[in-house]
Design a protein that fits this description.
23 helices, binds magnesium ion, nine-stranded mixed beta sheet, binds adenosine-5'-diphosphate, 17 strands, globular
Amino acid sequence: MTSAARVSAIQAIAQKSPVSASAHEPGLPESFGSNVFGLQQMRSRLPEAAYRALLSCMHRGQGLEPALADQVANAMKEWALERGATHFTHWFQPMTGSTAEKHDSFLNIENGELLLEFSGKALVKGEPDASSFPSGGLRATFEARGYTAWDPTSPAFIRETTNGATLCIPTAFCSWTGEALDEKTPLLRSAEVLNREALRLLHMLGEKQVGFVYPTLGCEQEYFLVDRDLYMLRPDLIATGRTLFGAKPPKGQELEDHYFGSISPRVLAYMQDVERELWKLGVPVKTRHNEVAPSQYELAPIFERSTVAADHNMLCMEILKSVALQHGFQCLLHEKPYAGINGSGKHNNWSMATDTGENLLDPGNTPGENMRFVVFLTAVIRAVDLHADLLRVAIAHAGNDHRLGANEAPPAILSIYLGEQLTEVVDSLIAGTKGSGANKKDHMRLGVSALPQLPRDATDRNRTSPFAFTGNKFEFRAVGSSQATARPNTVLNTIVADSIAWIADQLGKRGERSLESAVTELVQSALKQHSRVLFNGNGYSAEWHAEAERRGLPNFRSAVDAIGQLSAKKNLELFEKYGVLTAKEVESRTSIQFEAYCKAIAIEAQSALSIARTMVLPAAQKHQAVVAQSVAAVKAAGLAVPGQEKRLRSMTERIEHLLTAIDELALAFEKTEAHHGAVREHALAFRHDVVPAVARLRESCDILETMVDDSLWPLPKYRELLFLQ
Ligand code: ADP
Ligand code: MG
């Protein structure tokens, strides 16, 4: 028999059927972009000159002149009103990891007359009260206001909700003194730097026709679904996004029957609604499938310019969560909702593209394209080797600590997987010889033979690598599923821009030497110097950890070990040199990241304590009392019950362990909370004292779960959470 609350949740689930929320809405292609103020809307609603001017601003990421802003705002307002919007909001990404919005209606009253207004000023600049967003000390309260500024590379869109619609304007968020208070501003800055340096190098390589370079991004988003009736009975999921308790179920993911399995009707109905909502917002979602763990899924869009893709991934996460409610699900974006089965990541597919339609990480078919590819590849390899620590910081948070290095996700050591064939090419570039297997006739101008056709199929991909070359892009796989992608991409853009700049600087100093011989020599020496970061083997293995240490590759095991690295001297200098982050901004971000870690662990500790004290302990004691009574009654009747006595004793011991674990966690938490040292030490204390105490408490509770009468157990079990939907 199962506990009453669980029984009614299970009965409710048995009654549920697929929801058809958007079945009567138009399909593709009508729906795609219908809620976006996109090119079509702009062209049809703006005078030709204004349209052209706006395009150019969007393309280059420049701000709008006031007169143009007025025209655009007016056109946007007309469009939004036609689509039922009553309000507008600047939509931004403060350093909370999610998005923020403050709505204003179009309503205005002048001389007693009602007007619907949206000025160019309101479009390009907003002034939300910024005092309650994390600023890491950047903003004293007396100057608490910040401002938001439209990022014209990302189009405005309308969010439809049950009772209305709101015009959303994607914006960057800064303090009045110009410091970035958000994730988007550094991302925009880094994209600009990448453009500048890549253009300089391309022009040197003779590609004068290129006028603009931008980073591209496609995020594969993993997530879990849990039925909402069960979710509501799990205070840990509600407070922390993950289960703090739960014994291993009889069946987990060992049968490997979920991955790419047929999608259940209720889940498929949900996915279809998610996709329709995202298509309306112009998010080009493309693939859907079941992932490895039971009740785990993935969605992936077609890649886009990374500044837009970063916004679109935020929308993706929001829509995944909001549509789930309509379908009686809760969407879990946490990196590790369940112990013992796979967690969720967000593969960050990244490359660089030109306005002439070239992918700079595409090996290409001609010697010229091959040379360009090798040069840009070298830049990425050098960048990752020099700044592996920064990439690690960019994915460092409490949730991701459960995943990285846990034999299901890449290790915390950053290395690059190139695959067999490209490795051969790199080896021969280093050795200065012709690659084997290549077409000898078609010599590359680099002095080595032309690149062989590189495979692009998924067969030989190494899933254990945190940073893998997959045909014509790099896949940064260590990014967490719940993370905003702006941060990892800011780092990627910046470190690669820096290596591109270094290559351009070196080539600029070549004097009389030919470009080919200078490139050959430069590529050779750079690859040689940085080849230690290349690794095609099994990233999960213990041998690799030892080998990586020999190679001198950094290994920051936990988020707390990594975060401080953001302000290492070389990193500060890098960010300042390219104007991506000032020293003050770096300092504030560091303390926000430490604080976020402390808060996450503090919430987990308190949640674990309250569940253990008020749910697990009472259930265990009730069960113990029943067993004790039964043992006493049988013994009174004159029978011996050694087996039952033993069971009662072991149960009692477990309850004693539980009490000890509760006390130890309570003490560790209180001591850590009261700690008034620097934020880094505070985070270290959480990591070293509180995190293990939460784990020990879990152990006690999970053992009791396997002993206590099922009808007394208050928390839905893994077998229910993972399999009932
Ligand atoms: P897999 O799961 O095999 O890695 P998917 O097709 O699920 O492959 O995901 C690949 C992702 O990479 C997609 O989002 C795709 O749009 C993206 N992608 C492809 N080419 C590029 C590129 N040049 N730059 C950035 N992302 C890319
Ligand atoms: Mg992938």
